[in-house]
TrEMBL record:
The keyword Signal does not apply. InterPro entries: Adenine_glyco, DNA-3mA_glycosylase, DNA_glycosylase. One of its GO terms (molecular function) is metal ion binding. It comes from the Bacteria. It holds the Pfam family Adenine_glyco. Zn(2+) binds at residues 5, 18. One of its GO terms (biological process) is base-excision repair. Keywords: Metal-binding, Zinc. This is DNA-3-methyladenine glycosylase I.
């Protein structure tokens, strides 16, 4: 996404995301789940559309609390599909709810979503194909592009920023998982 390093600076919506979030490691489970849901919803749309709807997504999905979303039933599904503030796509809504249930079980097993991702990182390193297979085995609506962007945006795969982008150095200082994986290779 090297073009993002050219187009995001100075943009009122893209710049804060580019400069302070994109590619940085995330510890918080709700923030990781948010990023996953946003990446799923971006499929077929612009990232600007998703960023502009981000606050509405947070409100609609109860702050991306995994346990809460995992318990959504038919009334919640109908509420989400009627919410003009978010993307009203049945497959994407169903994927978010299903994936919350899977992630809740993973949090129960590993202690946190980050711990599960770190375990997967130890197995897959920066092999995008292996990561995609791992995600597709467990989660819905997981194509290679969605998985790749989720992992780049959360520091598990390289490529979020060009090496000459000033943000790249800050990401390296944050010790992203991909950096640890490539250092050990």
């Amino acid at each position: 996404m090297s073009g993002y390093c050219d187009s995001a600076p100075g943009h009122p919506v893209h710049a804060p995301y580019h400069d302070h979030e994109y590619g940085f490691p995330i510890d918080d489970d709700a923030a990781l789940f948010e990023r996953l849901v946003l990446e799923i919803n971006q499929a077929g749309l612009s990232w600007l559309t998703i960023l502009n709807k981000r606050a509405a997504f947070r409100a609609a999905y109860d702050g991306f609390d995994i346990a809460t979303v995992a318990r959504y039933g038919d009334a919640d599904r109908a509420r989400l599909l009627a919410d003009a503030g978010i993307i009203r796509n049945r497959l994407k809504v169903d994927a978010a709810i299903h994936n919350a249930g899977v992630l809740e079980a993973l949090v129960g097993e590993y202690g946190s979503l980050r711990a599960w991702l770190d375990d997967e990182a130890a197995r897959h390193g920066v092999d995008r194909t292996a990561w995609t297979r791992a995600f597709k085995r467990r989660l819905k609506f997981m194509g290679g592009e969605i998985v790749g962007e989720f992992l780049m945006s959360t520091g598990y795969l390289p490529g979020a920023h060009r090496e000459d982008c000033p943000v790249h150095a800050r990401i390296l200082a944050a010790s992203p998982a991909w950096r640890r994986a490539t250092a050990g290779a």
